[in-house]
């Protein structure tokens, strides 16, 4: 009995990991990339410091510096902008033949029956989906709202950290520091912002078009390999 129970527990453990493997793997990759960014960034920072005859900094000093924070925040805000625009855009915009799009003609918020809310909610539907009223209305837009809030917070963090980093350079050049309002209109702020935005918009657009003609067997981001290019969904 002990052997059977242990075997069952082991199988359950493997199954549990597999059920969350996508988030776990990408979480681990995120941590590794953050560590790599910190290590390489510190090396570059201290190399510049040695060249300028300045004191080197520790890892703790570097990861709490405005230089590290602004680089981190500008990447995060552009990613969450991408998701926010994509989530909202795909409600109303379609691309015939793309697995990244709804079928043409299905644009819009969709019916309560299709969304499983109100009297069409199931017993195992989320509580707020079954509650009705303002709670269901709020929950119906919770994904885009959360993505937009994280985007705005990280964009604000980019502005604050970017101003500090930019003013440090200005003071080294004996220039007057900028207040936050002035920095928000500066070339440094918008250069950092727009170079990230264009890369995210490019990724969204090309993915939508590539998914019409190209396939990746087994991926939910791709149509079945043998599905015709012009079909958006299997029942199209």
From TrEMBL:
Pfam families: DUF6766
One GO BP: proteolysis
Gene Ontology molecular function terms on file: peptidase activity
InterPro entries with a match to the protein in the record: DUF6766
Keywords, ordered alphabetically: Hydrolase, Membrane, Protease, Transmembrane, Transmembrane helix
Claim: Membrane is one of the keywords in the record: yes
Transmembrane regions listed in the UniProt entry: 24-45, 137-157
Record-given protein name: Membrane protein implicated in regulation of membrane protease activity
């Amino acid at each position: 009995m002990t052997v059977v129970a242990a075997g069952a527990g082991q199988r359950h453990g493997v199954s549990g990991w597999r059920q969350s493997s996508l988030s776990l793997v990408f979480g681990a990759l995120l941590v590794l990339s953050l560590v790599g960014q910190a290590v390489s960034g510190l090396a570059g920072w201290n190399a510049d410091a040695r060249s300028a005859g300045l004191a080197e900094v520790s890892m703790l000093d570097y990861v709490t510096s405005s230089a590290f924070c602004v680089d981190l925040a500008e990447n995060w805000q552009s990613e969450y902008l991408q998701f926010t625009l994509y989530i909202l855009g795909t409600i109303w915009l379609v691309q015939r033949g793309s697995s990244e799009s709804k079928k043409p003609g299905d644009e819009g918020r969709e019916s309560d029956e299709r969304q499983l809310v109100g009297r069409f909610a199931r017993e195992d539907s989320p509580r707020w989906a079954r509650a009705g009223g303002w709670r269901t209305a709020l929950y119906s837009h919770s994904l885009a709202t959360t993505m937009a809030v994280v985007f705005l917070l990280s964009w604000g963090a980019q502005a604050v950290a970017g101003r500090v980093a930019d003013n440090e350079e200005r003071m080294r050049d004996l220039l007057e520091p900028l207040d936050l309002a002035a920095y928000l209109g500066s070339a440094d702020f918008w250069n950092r912002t727009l170079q990230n935005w264009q890369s995210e918009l490019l990724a969204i657009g090309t993915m939508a078009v590539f998914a019409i003609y190209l396939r990746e067997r087994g991926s939910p981001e791709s149509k079945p390999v043998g599905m015709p290019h012009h079909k958006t969904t299997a029942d199209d």
